[in-house]
Structure formats: C-alpha cells, structure tokens
Specification:
Length: 198
Amino acid sequence: MFAMPLRAGAELRPLEPHDAEEFLAHIDRARAHISPWVGASFVAADLHGARAVLRRYADGQAADQQRLYGIWLDGVLVGGTMFVSFDAALGVCEIGCWLEPGAEGRGLVTQVVRMMIDWAFGTRGLARAQWCTLPDNARSIAVARRLGMSLDGTLRHYYPGPDGARRDKQVWSVLAADWPTAPPRDTDKAEPGPLTHP
C-alpha cells in the first residue's frame, strides 16, 4: 500500500473496498455538503452501499476504465479524486473530486488533479482530460480554471437533480498539447507510485 505525501499534512492513497467503513463514516460527515454536487450513486447510505461504490471503482481499475483515490488529512479520510472514466483507446479521461468542508481551501484537489493529468498525458499518452461540473459549483469551476482548462460548453437540462428539476452540466477540458508539464510519453515506463495499486 502506498501513501503519497501532499501539502498541508495530507496524503493520497487508493480508496479500496477494505476502506468501506472509513468511507461510509466520511460520507456521513460530508453527505449534506457533497450531495448537491456528486451523483446519488456515490453517496452511499449504508455499509453495503459503501462497499458497492468502492467495488465498482476497483472493478473499473482492473478494467483500466476508472480509478479512485482518497485524501487523508491527519489520518482521517476527508475526500478524494477519481478518474470517473478512463478510455485509453479514445485517449480521453474525465476527472472528478469531492471534499469535506474542513479540508477545502488547502489546494489539495488542484495538487492531486494536476498529478493525475500529468500521469494521464505523460505516461498513458491520453489526448484530453475533462472536468464536468454544475454551473453553480464555484469551487469546482475554480479548480478547472487553476488547471488551465477551457470551458467547452454547457449541456442544458442534462440530467434530473434530486428534486426532479433538470440540471445543466458544464464540460471543461485541457488537451495534452496545451498541458505544460506533460513529459514525453515513455511506453516502457511503469505507472508512477501515486497512481497505481501495489
């Protein structure tokens, strides 16, 4: 098991099915804060649901289609990031994130997402990373801007919200050609430590 040190005394680790109890405790603390912004299937209601979420991402990792990472602050799970989707053949990934209120404002998400994009472009040779958010999620939009992403457009009335009203979705992206820190791709290079399971 690896732990990648981050700023502000935090660390990044894979979030796996054996973390289900800790994940559920975290979701219980963060539920009201993150529910408006993340998919309902992610906000587990019980231990069985928490295991199912983590198992879904573990299966996605095994299929090279998704990945899920937790952010621990002072030994407590406070949020995380994920490859919501990862399509090596198409050369496109979508990255997402979530945090408890107490962990916000430390630059943790921007730091981790930058590492994920570096890996997706530099090691895996993807061409595009995208970031989807609601138009009123100011913190999420600020992360996209800090990473140099461009707003591709707004998908109007894309999906129903928890109240049944249709919600818009913004799509932001950055291309490998525009990413300043992506090293040349080395196809023989293994996945770097912070983005692989042991």
